Structures are given as C-alpha cells and as structure tokens.
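Researcher: Good morning. I'm working through a list of sequences from a screen, and I'd like to move beyond sequence-only analysis. For each chain I'm collecting a predicted structure so we can compare shapes side by side. This is the next one on the list. No need for commentary yet; just the structure.
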Amino acid sequence: MQKITFLFFLFVSTTFFAQVKGKITDTNKRPLSFVSVYLDKTVTGTTSNDNGEYVLNISKKGNHTIVFQILGYKTFKKKVTISSFPFELNVELEEENVQLDEISISTKDNPANRIIRNVIENKEKNTDKFAKYTAKFYSRGLYKIKDAPEKFMGQTMGDFGGGLDSTRSGIIYLSETISEIKFQKKPKKFKENIIASKVSGTDNGISFNRAEDANINFYQNSVEFGNDLVSPISTNAFSYYKYKLEGTFYDKNGKLINKIKLIPKRKNDRVFNGSIYIVEDDWAMYGADVSVTGAQVNIPMVDVLHLKQNYNYANKIDAWVLISQSIDFKVNVFGFKFDGRFSSAYSEYNFSPKYEENTFTNEVLTFEKKATEKNAVYWNKLRPVPLTIEEVKDYKIKDSIKVVRKSKKYLDSVNKKQNEFSLLAPITGYTYRNSYEKWSFSYDGLLGNFGFNTVQGFNTSLGFSYFKRQNEKGKWWNAGISANYGFSDKRLRPTVFFSKKWNNISRPRMTISGGITTAQFNSRNPIMDLNNTITSLFYRRNHLKIYEKGFAKINYSEEIKNGIYFSSSLEYANRKPLFNTTNYSFAKQSNTEPYTSNNPLNTTDFVNAAFTEHKIATLNVGASIVFGQKYLSYPDRKFNIGNDKYPTLNINYTKRFGASNSELNSDLFVASLRQDVNAGNYGNLSYNLRGGMFLKKKNIALMDKLQANGNQLDFPLDGQLNSFGLLEYYKFYTNDKYAEAHIEHNFRGAILGKIPLVNKLNFHLVGGAKTLLMANKKPYTEYSVGLDNIGFGKWRFLRIDYVKSFNAGIKNDGLLFRLSMFN
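Model: Good morning. Structure tokens for this chain:
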C-alpha cells in the first residue's frame, strides 16, 4: 500500500497538471539539467530538473514552437501540434560548435577586449530597456550531506530531519518559493510578495529563498555573490581580468554569440572564473557559466560556488533578460560535507507596469495570507520546475514523520537522550529539556565563567535558569539565579533576573534584575575578562579595574516604529571600592612588571580608593534610529535589514540622582553616528563618530564620567571602530565635554592588486585615522596603515596594523594583530 501511495504521489507531482512534459538528454543519453524550455518569441517558460525532466504549462491546443536552450549546447526549436494534454516531448541536444574564425585569430588587438569594452560602454543603454518590470519568481533550495558524522564534539547529531539513508547521506533541507516581484532601476527599488512557500518536513513552511538575494547582476560593478566580487564587465574590470575569445556561434534568432573566457590576473582576487557569453552588436549578456572559490569570497569552509545564468531575448523591449539561474555549492568543514543548489526561474515579465506612489516602501518582502499552507495540488499546478524522484521522496518521508515528531512520545524519547547527565556536566554545564511542554532548565558550568583578576583572584560562577516558550511568535519568559565566588577575596556575589519577551515583530522585552556584582570603572567595558586573565597570569599585567555594586534594576526595550528603537533602564545601586587581594601570577615578578593597584586614577596607590562608597540612582533613556530601514515581513516575525545608504544614529540621556552627596548627581547626553559604506570595487569605508556632554560640570565619581576605550594589548579582541589602538586604559576621562571619531577604509584589491609581484600575495591595504577631543586635554590622534586578508590559501583571517599616535607632543607607535573574519 505504501509503495502504491508513493507511486501515486510521484505521478501526481509530475503529470497531473502537466501540459507538455518530457526529458532532455545529450547525444550520449545523459540527462541535462537547467535547460530553459519556453515558447518561441516569449520569455516565459520552465527549466529542467536534475534528472533532465521538464513540465511546460501551455493553456491552448494547436500549433506551437517550443525552444530548448542551455549554455554549451545548440539551441533546439521544435514545432509541435498539440491535440490533447498531457503532450510528451523528449528531446536530445547537441553540443554547441564554438569556433574561432580566421579574422578573430589574426587581428592585432585581442578581440575579447574589444567585446568587453563594448559591453561596458553599453551597460546603461541595455539595462535602461528593462528599467522597471514585474515578474513571477520561482526558487528551490536544496542541501545535501554525505557521510554525516554521528557525533560532533561529543554531541549526537541525529538524523538531520529524517532524510538520511544507511550511509548517513541525503537531503537535509528542501524548500520552494513562488513570489511576485517588482523592480525599478532609478531610484533603485525592489519589492517581493511571496504567494507560496514550502519547506520539507515543517508545518509553517517559511522558506528563506528571496528573489533579491538571488539577484546576481553582472551589469553592476560589484556583484554580491558570497562576497562583493568584481564583475567581469565592471568599469575597472581590466585591472582584475584578462579575456580570451574562445569562439562564436549563432543562436536561434541568428544572433552571433561570443564565448569569452575569464582569466583572473591574480588567483585569489575577488573575481570570477569561467566564461561569459556576449551578444554581438547588442553587447548584452547572453549567459554565464562561472565559479568562485572559498579563497576568493573569503569563506574558507566553501570549496566552490558555481553560477549559471541564462538570458532570453524579449521582442517587446529589444533586450536580453534573465530567465533562469542556478547556484551550486560545495562546503567541507569539520568533517561535514555539504553540497546543494539554489535554482531560480523568472516568468511572466511585464516591462511596462504602472506603479502607485506607495508601491515601494521600506517593507521589501511580504507573505500572502496562508502562503505557507498551500497543498500539493496547488504546488503541482504552479511549480515551473518538476521535482526529481529524490525530492518527491524527501517531501513524502518528512511530511509523514513530522506529525510523529511533534508527538509527546517522540519528543520525550528525544529529550531522554538529550537529558543524559554526563560526568563533565558539573564543569561544562547541563540543560534539561521538555520539548513538548516547551520549557528547559539549565545549569551553567564552572568553566563558562571562570577567570582571574587581582581583586577576586581565581573566580567562577554557578547559575541556574528556567526558560519557557509560550508560542512560536516570540513570546517567552526566562528567570535565573547566579552566584560568583572569588577564591582570593572569599566573597560570594549573587544575582537574580527575570526577563520576558512578547513577540518577534516589535520585540518588546523587559528584564528585572538585582544582586551584587563587580563592574568596570569604564561602563563601556573596554577590557574582556579573557584578555585580562591571560595578561595577568602570563605577563603580570592587570589592566582590569573593578568596583562592587549592589543593585536593583529594570530594563525595557522595543522597536516602537520601523527603524526607531527605544530603550530605557532604572537602577538603584550601592557602590563600594575594591582592593587587590592577590599577587599570584604564572610569571615571576622578578622578570616582569609588578601588578598595579585597583585604583585607575593612581595605579601605584594600593591604600586609597578611586572613590568613596555611595548610593545613587540612574535613569537611562535612549533611542537608535536606522534611517530608511528596510525590513522583511514573515508570518511570525520581522527581520530588519537596515539601509547601507544612511548611517545609524544613537541618542542617550542619563540622569543620576538620589545621591547623599549632590555633587555626584549629573545629567549626561551622548550621541553617536555609525555607517558602513560599500564602495564597490574600491573597498569598504567605515566610520563611527561619538560625542557627549554634561549639562553641568560637577565632581562626579569616575565610573560616571565620559571615557574613551583604550587598548594596551598586542592582540586585541575588541571592536576596531570602538577603541583606540595605543591609548592607555583610563587615561582620558572627563566630567565636561568630549568627542571621538574613528574612520577606516579597506581598499581590498583596489591598490595592492595593481602592483606587480605584490599582487600575488592577495593582501588588502587598510588605512585608518582616529581622534579624541576632551575638555581641558590636548587632542589625541592615531593614524594606521595595515594589511588584511593575511594567511595561506583560502584561510586568511589575520590582519596587522602599524599604528602611530600623537598627544601633547608625545609620539608613540606599535603593531596590532587582529582576527579578521569573513571580510
């Protein structure tokens, strides 16, 4: 019975709504995938699947001319007379005979260069022809895994949703999306409305296949494909590519097509390998068959990304438009071997749409009501690319087991295995889960919060927390208790908290907390506990300076309107000074500098504190404004994606009050402006501007003063645009006014890539400048020049900066080493 059901499902999925169907092979009977199939003189059609099977919906009987087109093979036209449906048409495609004529071979100028120059010159003209349009978009995402490990770092990996065979290989993710898209070139606008979404093995079926993410546009100078890559028809493409005319052929319309081989000038530049196809005289894209390596996109876990694009001629606008695209990938990381494909198809183009004033808003993605609830009949009718037998099987298996896997019996059995208590649990931590009731109870291990400082000595925390999910739309609450113990000062400092979130749309969240803790004198927390532990134990340098705080606090935050984030907190605290209690270090004092005191104002004073004990209340009210913020509206949540055209503004007001000594009370305003600017082929520019002022200059406590983030480490782990490279911790602080500015530009390959021999190293030049202005202090300035993308092969995570500083006539310099991930 099960076999009959499966065969019926397969039959329905491939034939029930099929009008014209068949299989496409080469002359050796091997199936051809990603073949474009459409009616002649249209840009609407379908694409063959991985097995070479296709389904083309035709509403009328009679005479038709069907076109089969794929790069590397001769375009095939077939005239058919259809008297009944379904109509079966199997075709065999011959390889394209790409030839170089004698004129091309003998010309003095490289003919490929001439072609590329013409394409670059005509880019605006060609793209203006489809400056606005609407279209139907179909996307399918497929992830496969081979020989999946049963365990990773001691944790059982499970069966990845039930799609693995006996060799632990198979499909682990399968999704489909059908949407309607709207596009406008100037000013650039994009809108997508998903009308159907499906994910194998899930109920909600929310696919993350977006049309805008799939928009790989070679006509732009910078192409977003894993990273910002230099287009082979960019205005400065000749700085990155050499070109070779591999041959020519004529398409179905008698147009001469040039096949151009891309030859990167430097192996690991942000460029493409492979071939592009150019239409002679029109100087437009006809197709692309290109790839990039993990080194080129600076994602080491990726072996290769392979992109294919097919364009078709649209008679109405005399232009070549994209009709299909596929992205194949291979990933090999930590023993996991993934491969897969994202395929897309465009149809029903309308090149003269009438847009209303409110057609384009900051909401760039929407879902139709019940888009995730479409049944198999609906999908089989609209799906432009038929499923393979493997995909049909995956849907069937996972849709049948998803009901079982939601049951209490199954979830309890999974939790029973997950909840096993290991011998290392007291050190590493432990979580007990009840997936059916949607709650968990966790214990934080000793290792997670283990550290060292000269006030507490070796210290660690023990904590317990309870988490309860109340629905699938982001409503939950969380409560916990933690206690930190210092083995040198022999002090236990407990804290408790309760946190609640209501939804994933505006994300309103409230937290109530209290207890006793330690805090840095600089509330911006410039020193990481890990950094301080290492430098203290191995080099006897205790940069961290802390005080004790007994507190009660309430926080609230929410996105009150798109792009406007509100946050507030009210705290009442008792602050106490702390002193060093240990001189322990792995490093002998005779060979290193002695520990400094815990007084940041005078690091040689081990007796007097930086402040006197006091109680004070603090009110914080802040707002972050992301100008022109774009966002995606999913059925159960809102994803904010920002807007790189504009900066983000942060404004904060802090009022401290209720202190017994009124001089400690204060009013402070702080604002910052930050932006990352994509300069395309010329790299990335980033800046961060920050300033603040007190309404009245008063003798307030050090921890309430405006402070800059310094750095005294050779290998800092903090943010590059938040701190200074060579500034001493706690050297610059004020109770008046201050401003700081950080700016840097990563030129990528725009400069070093043009220098012979040096360009073989594939390093990226980075330049930066920082300045700090404070009332009653001389300006502090830093300039830096560095090399990014340092490493071997595709593993290039290291960045080195040479920094030179200037302050009050004193100059200093040094080298800083940083990890630079996925830049």
